[in-house]
Amino acid sequence: MTGLLPVLPTRAETPAQFRAAVSQIAYADPGTGKSVPILLLYPTRDPVQPIRRGPYHLNVAPEGGPALNSMPLVMMTQGPSRNGLAMVSVALFLARRGMTTAIVTHLGGMEPGADTGTGRGDRIGTVPLWPELPLQLRAALDAVLDSSPMGFRVDRQRIGVLGYAAGGHAALAAAGGAADPGRLTQVCAAHPDNRSLCPAGAKTTVAATPKRLEAATDSRIRSLLLMDPVGALFGDGALSRVTVPIRLYEAEKGDESGALQVARVRGLLPRPPEYDLVPGAGHYAFLTPVPASAAARFGATVQDPPGFDRAGFHARLNDEVLDYFRRTLNAAP
């Protein structure tokens, strides 16, 4: 995609083969020992019912019986977030077409008791958060594979990760990237008003611990799909060990501050990724559209640049995500 106003091809959506079931498990956060939830969505043939999760109404079978005995698994991470289900539409789409999806919650965005008005307690821009994210992702994967009844139904040779924003950073680190949290000092100095990476007080914390983190490759991960990943913490050569297949989405208007550095990720990868620049899209275009009745609670995350159709984009995005993981995880259509 290269034009600013592309004419998207119209095609029928890939038909659903199954209904979607939902269950919840948990993993133990490696740093604190706290129990952190994981939402599992997977194919079922059981009857569904409407349930409410956050701002979304989902038609799913709670604790439904799995429809298949062997399935690929897609771990989904958007990093710390106040709307942990913001990619649930993609997860449901994949589940209804034969894949197990796991939406991972991350500690670190706001500590319990944090003041959301002042940002006090917000750790998005601090050093401790960044090495914790891939460790949490690994612990979540362990928990999924150990869970019942889904764990033994996951094909260990067909595991992928979908990572958005800070979750994209976590995915790259888990796949072998070696991050340098000290680079945040440079980012925050150049973009002090970037609240997503540099909340108040973050620069002081970053400067105190400019330590490069060693790569810790999780060999179970076979492919990555990244959406506007945070690349600012990866220095020269930091992604040389990331050799799994990658599809990289970049929102044309998603990094206007220059802090995410998505282009840097693309340039550092040892093999050229599949790459898609999404014309007219803002950073939040990859998140599930929120019902109008709940939009006021989510502020900028539900707003798009003028002329961008998020719902129309997702109709195409879902099929592209499905196609990519079917190809790279050798999943049967």
Lateral strand order in the biggest sheet: 3-4-1-2-6-5-9-10-11-12
Broad structural category: alpha/beta
Mean pLDDT: 85
Shape: globular
* DSSP, total strands: 12
**Unreliable spans:** 1-10, 109-125, 206-210
In short, what is this structure?
With 333 residues, this protein is an alpha/beta fold. 23% of the residues lie in helices and 26% in strands.
Description of the structure:
- The protein is of the alpha/beta class.
- The protein is 23% helix and 26% strand.
- The chain has helices at 88-95, 129-146, 166-174, 184-190, 202-208, 262-268, 310-328, and strands spanning 19-28, 35-44, 49-53, 56-62, 71-77, 100-104, 110-115, 120-122, 154-164, 223-227, 246-253, 274-282.
- The strands form two sheets. The chain has a ten-stranded mixed beta sheet, with helices on both faces. Strands 7-8 form a two-stranded antiparallel sheet.
- Strand 11, helix 6 and strand 12 form a beta-alpha-beta unit.
- Helix 1 packs across helix 7 (310-328), helix 2 crosses helix 3 and helix 4 runs antiparallel to helix 5 (202-208).
- It is globular.
- The chain starts with 18 loop residues before the first strand and ends in a 5-residue tail after the last helix.
SSE topology:
Elements: E1 19-28, E2 35-44, E3 49-53, E4 56-62, E5 71-77, H1 88-95, E6 100-104, E7 110-115, E8 120-122, H2 129-146, E9 154-164, H3 166-174, H4 184-190, H5 202-208, E10 223-227, E11 246-253, H6 262-268, E12 274-282, H7 310-328
Parallel strand pairs: 1-4, 5-6, 5-9, 9-10, 10-11, 11-12
Antiparallel strand pairs: 1-2, 2-6, 3-4, 7-8
